[in-house]
Design a protein that fits this description.
Blueprint: H1 2-5, E1 22-24, H2 35-41, E2 47-50, E3 53-56, E4 59-60, E5 66-69, E6 73-77, E7 81-85, E8 91-93, E9 96-99, E10 108-114, E11 119-122, E12 125-127, E13 131-136, E14 139-143, E15 146-148, E16 153-157, E17 162-166, E18 169-171, E19 176-180, E20 186-190, E21 193-195, E22 199-203, E23 211-216, E24 219-221, E25 225-229, E26 233-237, E27 240-242, E28 246-250, E29 253-254, E30 270-272, E31 277-280, H3 308-317, E32 321-331, E33 337-347, E34 352-358, E35 366-374, E36 383-394, E37 405-415, E38 420-426, E39 437-448
Parallel strand pairs: 1-2, 2-5, 3-6, 4-7, 5-8, 6-9, 7-10, 8-11, 9-12, 10-13, 11-14, 12-15, 13-16, 14-17, 15-18, 16-19, 17-20, 18-21, 19-22, 20-23, 21-24, 22-25, 23-26, 24-27, 25-28
Antiparallel strand pairs: 28-29, 30-31, 32-33, 32-39, 33-34, 34-35, 35-36, 36-37, 37-38, 38-39
Length: 457
């Protein structure tokens, strides 16, 4: 039954309190002009949608909220400390986060995750901080981010940290892409690309014990030290090492021969690394060479045209027409089980649409994104959209599926000025789930920006 529950979309209200959603914009047409003002009014289960702009703030999240960027959203601070401080069961999605102040001896990081349970950092750009992400005494999902040009470390894992770190790009972080400063930290580091750092993965503490951290399905490319350890790791397998000065160093001794035979030492053949296109070319040795026959490295589309970074760029251009939908989804395949859902639909030309949303951090963890086209006929009384391309990702949901299990997600929507309805379809995910799912949804709240009102009949 838990696997059926995986497919209920977004629960955006709690059992006792209606979780109001908010918008933030620089142009006074939203609920707030400051992100922190929206956070202060949010409650557990609230979604805060932030429009394009440059926001000069240091923000502190509250328990159980989702902060989601629409378009190019830059969040900068010139003060020491953290630009973003996370809280329990929070999600941060789609932001560019950086530091614009003078060099400081004080603690400075892009995102602080301290004493936090179940936080999610998804699809962000984290750059030009002293440390990109600092994690201490917390458990955290860090997925599909680009962490680059930070002046010290991309990520620091300190005392008692549990991390799920997959499908990220680490690019030219000065000291270490990942610095593990405590043996009490545990987790999986998988399907990441590491490029151009002094240390890609650096475990600083020396011990005769084995660290409970695993490195699986990663690409290490042109780093000074790919894996630099003072303590042995639990597992280093199915990785690709190429053109690093040292592939594997243990207690200051280079010992590449100590790596097991599942690791490969060949050029991964990125499509266009000069332009930061880390997709694999069709003849890459990393294709199907990972654990369980998966690809090695960050989530790849082999044609090189649809890597995650390109999807981000495409989403960021879709901002002229914006529609926000809140309502109810019913999974017919799971005995007509129902939950609440919150979705954003955007378009730049009124013909081609993108839609995305974030699963809540109460019962489900995940994110979905779709692409579609308008199918409205001349005599239709609604804006009809067919989303025929999309994926839904599941994270940390307790279902038994591996982290970042992905399934196809498509839907049709009919949007009116005051309501909307439609159908959705979820594909299989062999070998974990072999049945397709289908359901219906109805949206009780429709919010259109001024441009979108003109394309909805």
């Amino acid at each position: 039954m838990k696997k059926f529950l995986l497919f209920f979309l977004v629960i955006s209200i709690s059992a006792t309190v209606f979780a109001q959603n908010f918008t933030v914009s620089m142009n006074d047409k939203a609920d707030f002009t400051k992100i922190q003002e929206a956070i202060d009014q949010a409650v557990f289960g609230s979604y805060i949608w932030v429009e394009s702009g440059i926001y000069l703030e240091q923000i502190t999240l509250k328990t159980g909220i989702s902060l989601i960027a629409l378009g190019d959203v830059f969040l900068y601070s010139s003060k020491a400390g953290a630009v973003v401080t996370m809280a329990d069961s929070c999600t941060l999605n789609g932001f560019t986060i950086g530091y614009k102040g003078e060099e400081t001896e004080e603690m400075q990081c892009g995102i602080m995750v301290r004493n936090v349970k179940h936080s999610t950092l998804f699809s962000n750009f984290i750059t030009q901080n002293k440390t990109g992400i600092f994690v201490e005494n917390s458990d955290c999902n860090v997925n599909y981010n680009t962490i680059f040009l930070n002046k010290l470390n991309g990520i620091t894992l300190d005392e008692n940290s549990k991390i799920d770190l997959g499908f990220n790009i680490f690019l030219k972080n000065t000291a270490s892409a990942i610095n593990v400063s405590s043996l009490n930290s545990v987790g999986m580091i998988y399907n990441n690309n590491f490029y151009g750092s002094r240390n890609a993965v650096y475990l600083t503490e020396t011990s005769t014990n084995t660290s409970s951290i695993s490195l699986i399905n990663n690409i290490f490319y042109e780093n000074e030290n790919a894996v630099n350890l003072n303590t042995l790791l639990q597992d280093i397998s199915y990785n690709c090492f190429f053109d690093n000065k040292s592939d594997y160093t243990y207690q200051n001794n280079s010992k590449r021969s100590s790596l097991n035979k599942t690791n490969i030492f060949q050029n991964p053949r990125f499509s266009d690394i000069e332009n930061n296109d880390f997709s694999l070319s069709e003849n890459s040795p990393c294709i199907n060479s990972g654990k369980f026959g998966s690809d090695i490295g960050m989530m790849i589309v082999r044609s090189g045209n649809e890597i995650n970074a390109a999807k981000k760029k495409k989403w960021k251009t879709q901002k002229k027409y914006t529609i926000r939908l809140d309502g109810n989804a019913t999974n017919i395949s799971a005995g007509h089980k129902s939950c609440d859902i919150s979705v954003v639909v955007c378009s730049d030309d009124g013909e081609h649409f993108l839609s995305k949303g974030q699963f809540d951090n109460i019962n489900l963890f995940g994110y979905f994104e779709m692409e579609g086209i308008k199918t409205t006929l001349d005599n239709d009384t609604s804006l009809s959209i067919r989303f025929d391309k999309g994926k839904v990702s599941f994270n940390f949901d307790g279902s038994g599926f591996p982290i970042n299990t992905q399934m196809s997600f498509t839907s049709t929507m009919n949007i009116h000025h005051n309501s909307a309805e439609g159908l959705y379809f979820i594909g299989i995910a062999p070998p974990f789930y072999l049945s397709e799912q289908n359901g219906k949804f109805s949206f009780r709240t429709v919010r259109l920006n001024s441009a979108a009102k003109k394309i909805v009949p």
